Amino acid sequence: MRLVWKSLDKMRCLRKRSTIPFLGFLITFLLFLNLYIEDGYVLEEDKRQLRETSVHPPSSERYVHTFRDLSNFSGTINVTYRYLAGTPLNRKKYLAIGLSSVKRKRGNYLLETIKSIFDQSSYEELKEIVVVVHLADFDLVWCENLVQEISRKFAHHIIAGRLLVIQAPEEYYPSLDGLKRNYNDPEDRVRFRSKQNVDYAFLLNFCTNLSHFYMMLEDDVRCSRNFLTALKKVITSREGSYWVMLEFSKLGYIGKLYHSRDLPRLAHFLLMFYQEMPCDWLLIHFRGLLAQKDVIRFKPSLFQHMGYYSSYKGAENKLKDDDFEEDSIDIPDNPAASLYTNINVFENYDATKAYSTVDEYFWGKPPSTGDFFVIVFNKSTKISKIKISTGSDDRQNDILHHGALEVGEKLVGTKKGKQCSSYITLGEFKNGNIEVQDVDHKIAFDIECVRIVVTASQKEWLIIRSISLWTTQPPSQ
């Protein structure tokens, strides 16, 4: 393995002048190459080693890292992990939560983060999660002391298989010297963020077969109450739609949710480009390359950054997510849908931005009587609550002055796309806003469309700031 990383080191001088466009091309080529490579191209010996790794990780003497390992994004990376506390259970859990932690010069929030995860979960929720802590510091004395403290405070969770503490040995890491200084970052900053990418890669790799979904957190986070129930509601509402990453916080690596089946690809991706850019930037590239164009983020946020000092040099870091709520179980879960409008759209403020949870909005030119804005669901659904807000703080008159909210059924195809042929009015907008509770009690059918109808022409432009929908889960959920 050392020989391979040394050969890669020699190649760095040739890549010093490489451009970002070339990097983008290389990333795209490798990912799409992998998408078209079938398992039959993987040698039987590789398959055998992968099977052995999932049960008995190989010794470091047998570990040989080749470019074939890197190009086979669907396979796990052969790493012999140290089990510092706990052992994996045979049964897959619903959610694995991954934390990577290093020794900080100021402050340590790992124990508080672990405590928050467990304290904010019900007994039933605890049965469905496993927390994996990767102690990614090479100071073995620090690691040993911290493991003792974790074992003392969370012994019952370790015994129950809900908490694992692991470490990837230093010999598996690539060289962290002489790295490329992209973006003119200082050498110590480049070293820090490059190692962090490898830390996360090894953590993701370990968690591949532990659960159906994986949540990435940092080691200085506070959780909202019953966050798992809120997560499951969102995941259920998006069944049948394609997604790579769902976001439950707008900060850093906090609250990023993945299918566990994507973890090997993501781990390889972080390893391949570990020295190119920070981890959160790589996550954005990964999402885009797997064809999720837009951010899918849900509010209120389920996780809050609570640290005051960064793990990098102990610098102050008082970032807070202002969308976080301690009790966020009532999170809207807008189901997957297509959006249409005949209102004249201004520039790129298109219809999808009103339905997104990022800080964007739909903006159209003055609407006329009969104009519409319609949401057509990918599949019919039961809805308990609808809340729509128009206008903005700096354009308070760009509201819907006269409009109605309708829900529809009996989907039919038209020249302009699918539309519902039958609608029922739920209410009228007041001061540009509307909120309707208990929709599922008022409407007997499963809803296929939600429509905003303009009931009187206006001279003002129209901003639809947010559309929030709450679905009703089946009794079995």
Structure, described:
With 477 residues, the protein is α+β, with helices and mostly antiparallel strands. 30% of the residues lie in helices and 24% in strands. The protein is built from 14 helices and 18 strands. The protein has helices spanning 2-15, 20-36, 44-55, 67-71, 110-119, 123-126, 140-153, 155-159, 187-207, 227-237, 263-272, 279-289, 352-355, 439-442, and strands at residues 82-85, 93-101, 129-135, 163-167, 211-216, 221-223, 245-247, 256-259, 303-305, 337-341, 362-364, 372-381, 383-390, 403-414, 417-428, 433-436, 447-454, 462-471. The strands form four sheets. The protein has a seven-stranded mixed beta sheet with strand order 1-4-3-2-5-8-7, sandwiched between helices. A hairpin with an 8-residue loop joins strand 7 and strand 8. It is elongated. The protein starts with a helix and ends in a 6-residue tail after the last strand.
Topology:
Layout: H1 2-15, H2 20-36, H3 44-55, H4 67-71, E1 82-85, E2 93-101, H5 110-119, H6 123-126, E3 129-135, H7 140-153, H8 155-159, E4 163-167, H9 187-207, E5 211-216, E6 221-223, H10 227-237, E7 245-247, E8 256-259, H11 263-272, H12 279-289, E9 303-305, E10 337-341, H13 352-355, E11 362-364, E12 372-381, E13 383-390, E14 403-414, E15 417-428, E16 433-436, H14 439-442, E17 447-454, E18 462-471
Parallel strand pairs: 2-3, 2-5, 3-4
Antiparallel strand pairs: 1-4, 5-8, 6-9, 7-8, 10-12, 11-18, 12-17, 13-16, 13-18, 14-15, 14-17
Helix pairs in contact: 9-11
